[in-house]
Hints:
Largest sheet: 8 strands, mixed
CATH class of the largest domain: Alpha Beta
Number of domains: 2
Amino acid sequence: MTEPLHTSLHRTAKYFMDSGRVRTTEEAMDLLKSFGLTIVCGPEIRASPAAQIALLTLVNLARRTFLAGVEIVGLEDVPVLTQLSLELDLVAAVSKLGGRAVQKARPAWPFAIIGSADMQPTELPAWRMTWQGWRAGVVPIRDAWAMTDDESMPLAPALAASICAAEVFSFHAGDRSLSGRRASGLSIWRPGSDWMAPDDTEATLSFLPSRLWLIGLGNLGQAYSWLLACLPYQNGGLELVLQDFDRLALSNDSTSVLTNVDVLGQMKTRWAAEWLEARGIRTYLEERRFTSSTKRQTDEPAVALCGVDNALARSVLEDAGFDLIIESGLGAGPQSFRNFAMHTFPGPRRATELWPTTISAEAPEVSHMPAYTDLKDKGVDACGLAQLASRTVGVPFVGLIAGAFVISELLRRLNGGTAYDVIAGSITCLDDLDVCAGASQIYDFGFSPVSPASLECA
């Protein structure tokens, strides 16, 4: 049986359909099949867990969006130094995620650089991923500038990879003239500050959250899971309740970082649990919708991370009995799919104020666009077209950037930093974030010490 378009169509292809840039779904997919990326690894990839996190994260994100391929120059057959992959050697880890080791770069593809790799001059954009402490981003290689690329905050290289994927996509899509010509980055210690400026207030990462409840295992929930797996937990140091009611569909492969075509049809909770348990993270499953009837028991995690796009579910977040809730959401439609926002509860506004149940959010009207007319002419019925039109445009790198704010919110609170009630912005201009700092309080919902082995590496 053929899977319906609304659960099978590539969510990034919808961008070109919904914006009217293509006349058919085939044209949209052909565009994505022209997008490629070469990653060039320096010698640091041999011994740096952070460099490997950057590489594996970028390959994971890029293969979902740049369908011409992701090729890696300078990749060596060295041991994997991060829990993101269970493969023994790095070449196998990259291959498992969809990348391909090559000897020579394609001149027609843009470049992403990790470490001190030498680059020949090129007319196409080339970015260096760079990070230091809680700050990360990308810089055009012509600027000849980079941070220390240290090992102190494992979210930073993953964040650099996400920002790099966003810049590469904008270059290929041709919808942001500055892509490839600007530096772009973030501080997850002080969001909204100058990410390139040294910040001696950044804390040493010493404590990690030990018990969390994840609501939703789609784009955002899987991003949370990937980022948690970056962190230096001792085996068994993290316990997660995973809540979702849905199964993995083909469209999830285009947006959700734990998904691949071999696991389609599985319950999202069960596949996420299998992936996490293999990395030493204990899981418990809740396979039903999050509703007003969902109630946390006293012996269950007191902190919830929410990543659902359902306004009704979000409006009742504060009624479930959690002591702290951190939720994030992504924009929808061709004009705002690059947007993200994070809220924490309790906060200055209640969830019912942000997502009133009496008002239903309307998706952008796109059914008049040529690609939808073509589908109608090909026999797709009105119901199928309406379902497809209602689905959001999606890209995996926005979810991972939003996820980095959510996980870093926990880490800041645990390590003496500022608590934030709201962080919102767009990957089109990361220098312009809306932030609202909250009252800092002691995080007393359970913690694990950072693994001693990671401290030795740092």
